């Protein structure tokens, strides 16, 4: 006894040596609190097994309610095909739309509110939603159950859900039929409206041409000396352009030039032979020039397309053959445009005066103009001299002649453009009515589904059971590890970083307790 007391008074004795306690990681305690080990977490989770059981029972009950109340949903599908009719190259630039926008247009047409409302009304879908919220919400509900997928540039799939097999099949088939009908109706209506509009514009253009020709004929009846210049294609416009360029380049007297232009016209009326200097250089019509430019652009695009196809496919591939045919057609169109630009020689117009009194009047005018030309050339003021009344009158007449000729050429050009557009519109309308244009066809009809879509009830029940057990274990672990602060083993004391452990009392065996009792 005395020896033990002396040992205790002489200094502190480590508990594992004096009392036979379990080894303690003193260094770990000194380092601070440590995270619980896996064994400790398992023990704490098992201590709250009742929490896991309660959560698992609640999850199983909820899964049972969901599985029992879930109604089967069936999904059917149909495939539609875009069949191209008459090639757009035959109809010109106003032909059918390209394929790159076809999918977006078909999807918008299918999911339009007016089309889906027909389906909701015809099959009496979502009666409760219509009664409580209205037709708009019912249409939105149906739109969420319709899927439009693009399988290829010209093949599309439409799928829809239904409460029964028959309803899913009928709704899907009806959606495809509505899409085909609506697309055909829109195309025919558009072709008809375009044709009617171009016909009205064509009539107005014809009236404008007749009006311009009448005004120009009246002008030529009063001033027949301009008939020779009017007969040459583009004579008025080309002559005005040449005169403007010369005046800007040389800075010459425009009044003198007007007098010099009028003198040959009057001589031609006396002799009946127009002088070469009086005829302005002919210029090709702008419509033909524009047609040639379009043909050149089409040929360049066709050649690029052919080179692209030849780099990917063989010469026998259908796409390569089609590209070759397009190049040949573009070359032929360019040759026709170039041939049209070769203008025929200007016809010889007889402008000679036949009446002697008229000839005498023309001679007097010519003599007056020649004297004024000579006087103007010899004048010291040169181009600064004031224009005479005769010169002013000639300039006004030339200005009026240029205006009338320009209006006639513009009206004829507009008429030619509208005739081409009207012809292409009539071809497009004829192809629509005859069934030769692009059409939307049902490739695979809607099928009757054999089983509900989505997971079955058995899979849902098993999934709910597994999730319920997992949720119960997670709840028990959270309860034992995070929320429970009681001490279960030596590791809990070590994490608390308290004073060194002095005594560890082992748990009493259950058998010894029974013997004592």
Automatic annotation (TrEMBL):
Keywords: Coiled coil, Kinase, Membrane, Transferase, Transmembrane, Transmembrane helix
TM spans (from-to): 47-67, 458-481
GO molecular function: kinase activity
Coiled-coil region: 195-222
Segments for region (Disordered): 229-260, 272-294
Keyword Coiled coil: yes
InterPro entries in alphabetical order: Bact_polysacc_biosynth/exp
UniProt biased composition (Low complexity): 234-252
Family matches, as PANTHER family: CAPSULAR EXOPOLYSACCHARIDE FAMILY, TYROSINE-PROTEIN KINASE
Protein name: Protein kinase involved in polysaccharide biosynthesis
Source organism of this protein record: Sorangium cellulosum
């Amino acid at each position: 006894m005395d020896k033990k007391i002396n040992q205790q008074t002489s200094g502190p004795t480590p508990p594992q040596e004096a009392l036979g306690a379990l080894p303690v990681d003193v260094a770990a305690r000194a380092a601070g609190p440590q995270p619980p080990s896996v064994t400790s977490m398992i023990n704490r989770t098992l201590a709250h097994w009742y929490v896991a059981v309660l959560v698992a029972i609640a999850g199983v009950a909820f899964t049972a309610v969901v599985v029992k109340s879930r109604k089967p949903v069936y999904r059917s599908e149909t495939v539609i095909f875009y069949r191209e009719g008459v090639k757009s190259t035959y109809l010109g630039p106003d032909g059918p739309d390209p394929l790159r926008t076809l999918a977006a247009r078909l999807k918008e047409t299918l999911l339009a509110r007016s089309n889906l409302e027909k389906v909701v009304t015809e099959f009496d879908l979502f009666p409760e939603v219509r009664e409580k919220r209205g037709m708009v919400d019912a249409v939105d509900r149906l739109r969420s159950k319709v899927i439009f997928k693009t399988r290829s540039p010209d093949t599309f799939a439409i799928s829809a859900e239904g409460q029964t097999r028959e309803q899913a099949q009928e709704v899907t088939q009806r959606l495809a039929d509505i899409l085909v009908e609506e697309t055909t109706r829109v195309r025919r209506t558009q072709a008809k409206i375009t044709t009617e509009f171009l016909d009205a514009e064509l009539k107005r253009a014809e009236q404008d041409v007749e009006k311009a020709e009448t005004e120009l004929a009246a002008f030529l009846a009063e001033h027949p000396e301009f008939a020779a210049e009017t007969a040459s294609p583009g004579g008025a416009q080309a002559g005005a352009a040449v005169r403007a360029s010369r005046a800007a380049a040389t800075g010459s007297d425009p009044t003198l030039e007007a007098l010099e232009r009028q003198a040959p016209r009057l001589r031609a009326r006396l002799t009946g032979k127009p002088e070469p200097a009086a005829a302005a250089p002919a210029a090709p019509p702008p419509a033909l020039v524009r047609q040639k430019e379009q043909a050149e652009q089409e040929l360049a695009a066709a050649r690029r397309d052919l080179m692209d196809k030849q780099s990917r496919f063989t010469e026998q591939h259908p796409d390569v053959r089609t590209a070759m045919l397009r190049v040949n057609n573009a070359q032929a169109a360019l040759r026709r445009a170039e041939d049209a630009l070769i203008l025929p020689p200007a016809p010889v117009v007889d402008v000679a005066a036949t009446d002697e009194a008229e000839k005498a009047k023309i001679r007097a005018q010519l003599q007056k103009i020649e004297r004024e030309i000579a006087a103007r050339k010899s004048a010291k003021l040169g181009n600064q001299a004031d224009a005479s009344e005769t010169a002013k009158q000639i300039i006004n007449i030339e200005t009026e002649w240029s205006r009338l000729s320009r209006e006639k050429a513009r009206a004829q050009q507009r008429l030619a453009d509208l005739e081409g557009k009207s012809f292409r519109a009539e071809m497009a309308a004829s192809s629509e009515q005859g069934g030769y244009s692009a059409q939307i066809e049902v490739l695979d009809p809607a099928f009757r589904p054999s089983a509900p879509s989505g997971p079955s009830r058995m899979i849902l029940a098993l999934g709910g059971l597994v999730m319920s057990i997992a949720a119960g274990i997670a709840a028990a672990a959270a309860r034992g590890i995070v929320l429970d602060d009681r001490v279960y083993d030596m590791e809990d004391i070590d994490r608390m970083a308290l004073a060194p452990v002095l005594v560890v009392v082992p748990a009493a065996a259950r058998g010894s307790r029974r013997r004592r009792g």
